[in-house]
Design goal:
heterodimer; A: 0% strand; flat; B: mainly alpha; 86% helix; globular
């Protein structure tokens, strides 16, 4: 118990140092440059205390729960007893449950992400209804699920990270090129949907999963192979959203074309 | 008092809803697929409660204090008309919010541990702490720089995608020059920065700026800043890996 309190106190001190720069910056600009007293000063100070306490509890909880969960899942899913083959002989197909787990975590956390809902509502508005709210949420979630699963496949096989990332960005650039002409408004939203998927809870858990896999699978180094899952989780939603926007625009055009044909056909017999 | 408690309870339930999908997926895999005993269950349960409470208080505190003040300042600077102060504020905003980003604190610590496990760093706490701090400061500086470029872009009206494509070409070139152990961390740091603290304040700056200049679209210009903020860290962290 005293150990725990000691840990809590140390984390609180470190957190104070982390939050200090932003408080100093805001205070400096408020006092020295804008030269006005902010309204609700008391509320702002209480808010800053909440931020400090909240961040401390979150970081302690992260060490006690999120990191261990990611590591335990990685260890148990790659355990030779669970795989049914010796670790040294296991091929990439033996790790099927690792990919399923990665995809499930990616999908579940993304569909429930509140900031994604906000972006989806805006996208619906901007696109004039061609992009539906649920369509976008599911598209982003599929992108994240595929990205994280592919990322774990990469760790299992030990192929270089940059093949996937460079390939992914090449595809993204081609899609951007196309989308700028077809549906230009969607491009910034698609880029943004990559950013909103990586929430504060998901990032540590996914990072721990990657590091855990890289340290339990024989022949992998945590430093070289353990990272990259978060990059996958933010790259693939952009690709899937641009793909979805392209598909939605194509369907709208086709419906418009069919509707016109239908109307002409309807007129003919008369 | 009761009303305050009830609204806090509602916020805790909101955090629980965010955590629920993760807990469900893990419970499903533990019970149905793995069927193995879960070690340290009580400790982890306590940790999950701490994460939930911490996230609730953190977001509540941001909404009470930092967000309103940050947003009003972003609007004030966007309207003030002094370019030097605007760019200075943009840099400081990016730097300050990224330095306090919880996801980045977590990933930097994990990166330092992985580096010392792989023998890249000496295995002592001080070396790990200084590596993690260096990484965080690098990412914070890069987000600050990305906002400066983003603000200039909004003022000049350059299209987002040309800068993004140019940036990714630089990322690809640096990938072949940087030491292999930094590449994964560098790519990941791009996704980490656009998290809880940074996004709302940066979006406020972009929207405030775009709505005070005639002929700018608040939607596209506000989003462009976030896209830069997730691209620059990749470039800067790879450069950091080449120098360090």
């Amino acid at each position: 118990m005293t150990d725990f309190l000691h840990h809590l106190w140390n984390t609180a001190l470190a957190t104070g140092l982390d939050v200090a720069p932003i408080v100093a910056i805001l205070a400096f600009f408020q006092i020295a440059v804008l030269r006005r007293r902010p309204p609700n000063l008391r509320r702002i100070v209480i808010g800053a205390v909440y931020v400090l306490i909240g961040l401390t509890l979150f970081l302690v909880g992260l060490e006690e729960a999120l990191f261990p969960i990611g590591e335990i899942m990685a260890r148990q899913l790659t355990d030779p007893a669970f795989l049914g083959v010796a670790a040294a002989e296991a091929g990439w197909r033996d790790y099927l449950w690792v990919y399923v787990f990665a995809a499930a975590i990616g999908f579940a956390t993304t569909v429930a992400e509140p900031s994604l809902l906000a972006v989806a509502l805006k996208a619906h508005q901007v696109s004039g209804g061609t992009v539906s709210v649920w369509g976008l949420r599911i598209t982003v979630a599929i992108g994240v699920a595929f990205g994280v699963a592919l990322g774990t496949y990469r760790i299992v096989t030990g192929t270089p990270l940059y093949w996937y990332i460079v390939g992914g960005y090449a595809l993204l650039i081609l899609q951007t090129w196309r989308a700028v002409r077809v549906a230009g408004d969607i491009v910034p939203l698609a880029y943004d949907s990559g950013g909103v998927t990586t929430s504060t809870v998901t990032v540590p858990l996914v990072a721990a999963l990657g590091l855990g896999l890289a340290s339990t699978i024989p022949g992998r180094s945590p430093a070289i192979d353990g990272f990259g899952l978060i990059a996958f989780a933010s790259l693939f939603p952009m690709i899937s959203v641009l793909g979805y926007a392209d598909l939605a625009a194509w369907r709208k055009r086709r419906r418009a074309a069919l509707g016109k044909d239908g109307a002409e056909e309807g007129r003919k017999p008369k | 008092m009761l009303a305050g408690f009830l609204s806090f309870l509602r916020l805790v339930l909101g955090s629980l809803r965010d955590l629920a999908p993760i807990l469900l997926v893990i419970a499903f895999f533990q019970i149905v697929v793995l069927q193995q005993p879960f070690p340290d269950l009580e400790r982890i349960a306590v940790g999950v409660v701490l994460v939930m409470l911490g996230l609730t208080l953190f977001i509540q505190g941001l909404e009470m204090g930092l967000f309103p003040i940050g947003e009003s300042m972003a609007h004030a600077f966007a309207r003030k008309g002094s370019l030097a102060w605007l760019l200075g504020f943009a840099f400081c905003l990016g730097f300050g919010t990224t330095a306090a980003e919880p996801a980045l604190i977590a990933v930097a610590a994990a990166a330092a541990r992985a580096m010392s496990k792989s023998g890249v760093l000496p295995d002592d706490g001080a070396a790990q702490a200084s590596y993690a701090l260096g990484l965080r400061l690098t990412v914070a500086v890069s987000v600050g720089a990305s906002l400066v470029l983003g603000v200039i872009r909004i003022l000049k009206g350059w299209p987002v995608h040309t800068i993004i494509i140019g940036g990714y070409v630089i990322v690809v070139i640096l990938t072949f020059l940087a030491p292999p152990e930094i590449i994964g961390v560098a790519y990941d740091s791009g996704g980490v920065t656009t998290s809880t603290v940074t996004v709302p304040l940066v979006a406020a700056l972009g929207v405030g700026l775009a709505s005070s200049i005639r002929g700018r679209n608040p939607l596209t210009d506000g989003f462009g800043l976030i896209a830069f903020a997730s691209m620059f860290p990749m470039i800067f962290v790879m450069l950091y890996g080449m120098i360090a």
